[in-house]
């Protein structure tokens, strides 16, 4: 089997020194005077010979290889286009291509005998110039380790861990959730329940903060509004709330979508017709239910903005700032909210 071409072969074909070839292929030509004709001759020789640079060697030589990592501490990569993370990944791919960046997909432990949140497992991300991270929770030790080493990273989703040192692009769930409750109050609803998961992820806490802010502004009894529940408990809650005179139910939409799905199923099983019998709102548009009122999370733009922020982190000439970006949600009028 023929050996792979080397930089010495390119130098011979282009009629230049191997040092010149190395400088041109690495992009590390700052302070070196090279004519454009020489650069083109080297690149054409490399292409003709089928030369593929070693990304690790390129990174060592130039400190950049135009590769961005994508890493998740949970199962985030979709198996179909209806997956919660699919639009985010589409946005990441689109913006990376627009900025001339390649993507490296890190899938958990990569065969290592370590959990995905172990810093030995995520050490592999350093082959890239920087990395985007997913997950409802932040494994603080490995992320702190990366930040301490000066590695550029951006988290997708609002993060307040590690003293606000984590750069992120998130969503303004507080304002969007408050707007949904404001709408219900304007339509005369006074007995409102907010259904949320047991998980304490920032996205869930932000939604609750918005719901409670709107409830307090309307002088509702905030102590009765928030109810944490598992999927299996939802049907019984609906039956209980009917007896309590509840006229509107708001539910959060998480990455799994299971809680909102359980609510919609329970309402249908009880024979209730929104909004005539009960007003419904989902804080995050559930798939297959475009008629449901609430708001849509700008997931595609979330991915695009995260890539732009990461590239800014990578190319920053001075000290990196932990920039925090929040995107507005898109209101969905739907047809499941009506007068009390």
From TrEMBL:
<keyword id="KW-0678">Repressor</keyword>
<dbReference type="Pfam" id="PF00356">
    <property type="entry name" value="LacI"/>
</dbReference>
<keyword id="KW-0804">Transcription</keyword>
<keyword id="KW-0805">Transcription regulation</keyword>
<dbReference type="InterPro" id="IPR028082">
    <property type="entry name" value="Peripla_BP_I"/>
</dbReference>
<dbReference type="GO" id="GO:0003677">
    <property type="term" value="F:DNA binding"/>
</dbReference>
<dbReference type="InterPro" id="IPR046335">
    <property type="entry name" value="LacI/GalR-like_sensor"/>
</dbReference>
<feature type="domain" description="HTH lacI-type">
    <location>
        <begin position="5"/>
        <end position="62"/>
    </location>
</feature>
<dbReference type="Pfam" id="PF13377">
    <property type="entry name" value="Peripla_BP_3"/>
</dbReference>
<keyword id="KW-0238">DNA-binding</keyword>
<dbReference type="InterPro" id="IPR010982">
    <property type="entry name" value="Lambda_DNA-bd_dom_sf"/>
</dbReference>
<protein>
    <submittedName>
        <fullName>LacI family DNA-binding transcriptional regulator</fullName>
    </submittedName>
</protein>
<dbReference type="InterPro" id="IPR000843">
    <property type="entry name" value="HTH_LacI"/>
</dbReference>
